[in-house]
Amino acid sequence: MAKTALITGILGQDGPYLAKLLLEKGYKVYGLIRRYSNPSFDNLDYVGVTKDVNFAEGDLTDESSLINVIKNVRPDEVYNLAAQSFVGSSWEQAKLTTEVNATGVLYLLNALKYFSPTAKFYQASTSEMFGLSNDDGYQGETTQFHPRSPYGVSKVYAYWMTVNFRESYNMFTANGILFNHESPIRGIQFVTRKITDGVAQIKLGLKDELRLGNLDSSRDWGFAGDYVEAMYLMLQQETPDDYVVATGETHTVRQFVEAAFKSAGIDDWEKYVKIDPRFQRPAEVPHLRGKVDKAKNKLGWEPKVSFEGLVDMMVKADIERYEKKIAQK
Q: What is the pLDDT tens value at each position of the chain, 329 positions in all?
């Protein structure tokens, strides 16, 4: 009998890639969506799975709706990818960020505890929980958390609540501490997609500058399509655990910019990039680099797409988008 999976945040970046992976493995996939007046299925369309996904209405801030979904779907696996996930907005929307990312996880875990206690649960944790902490330049499963934003703080709460339900109720709950992962369907508000979108417009003569904040921040960037495989593998283990998912390599925002302009065939990138103080964070996380030994050794997982391949993939996808828009005019 086919397994049933429930994915929250299915309209975001990771949800479509995960849905595609699970559908290819024969799962019946449900996606939790809020009652939008006009929901966008563009990301699911991009990976070609919209027609194969079943949708259930619910909201992480509404516990009763989550109970109804769990009772109706009775999932074998739940992947909680829903979040207010833009770090920059979490200062202006700290309450909403907390309600969705922290309290919402508690609501979902409670719904599972009472109505589907044997379901396996995956929580999308984040490298932003580490903040300033590191061990010999890396962040691993035992590195102390020191979040530097309301987003990071909310995710620390969700992380420990996931651990607490595992230890208190013997539930299969796992945290995937994912470092930055990108793709052609990354939200335009994130710096990587902002860069590739801007480079595509400059390439096609649609704009003449790209405004950014701190070019010296360094991140461990991977491909979302690779990272969802790690999520799946975590829930196929005999015992639940927590794993860092990363590439183990770091690149600065400046290097990302250079690679993006190079992919578009533009050499003199400096004349197009303007530093704008509006895009500086109140508290910056200067360096993130994941120690991924545990995921490699226990899950047999490792990333397939290189940093250069990721940037090139994103730039080419954005150029193609704008070429289609131009052709339609």
A: 899 999 999 999 999 999 999 999 999 999 999 987 688 999 999 999 999 999 999 999 999 999 999 999 999 999 999 998 767 777 788 988 999 999 999 999 999 999 999 999 999 999 999 988 776 778 999 999 999 888 999 999 999 999 999 999 999 999 999 999 999 999 998 999 999 999 999 999 999 999 998 898 889 999 999 999 999 999 999 999 999 999 999 999 999 999 999 999 998 999 999 988 766 655 555 568 999 999 999 999 999 999 999 999 999 999 999 999 999 87
Domain boundaries, the chain: 4-181+223-245, 187-219+250-284+306-328
Is residue 126 annotated as part of the catalytic site, yes or no?
yes
Q: What is the pTM of this model?
A: 0.94
Marked catalytic residue, from 4, 97, 126, 173: 126
**What CATH superfamily classification does 187-219+250-284+306-328 receive?**
UDP-galactose 4-epimerase, domain 1 (3.90.25.10)
Which residues in 160-236 belong to E strands, given as ranges? 173-178, 181-182, 210-212, 218-219, 222-223
What CATH number labels 4-181+223-245?
3.40.50.720
| The domains spanning 4-181+223-245 and 187-219+250-284+306-328 adopt the same CATH topology | no
Task: Indicate which residue of 27, 138, 151, 232 is catalytic.
Answer: 151
Identify the active-site residue in 17, 30, 79, 128.
Answer: 128
Q: What would the two tokens of residue 144 be?
A: 């102390």
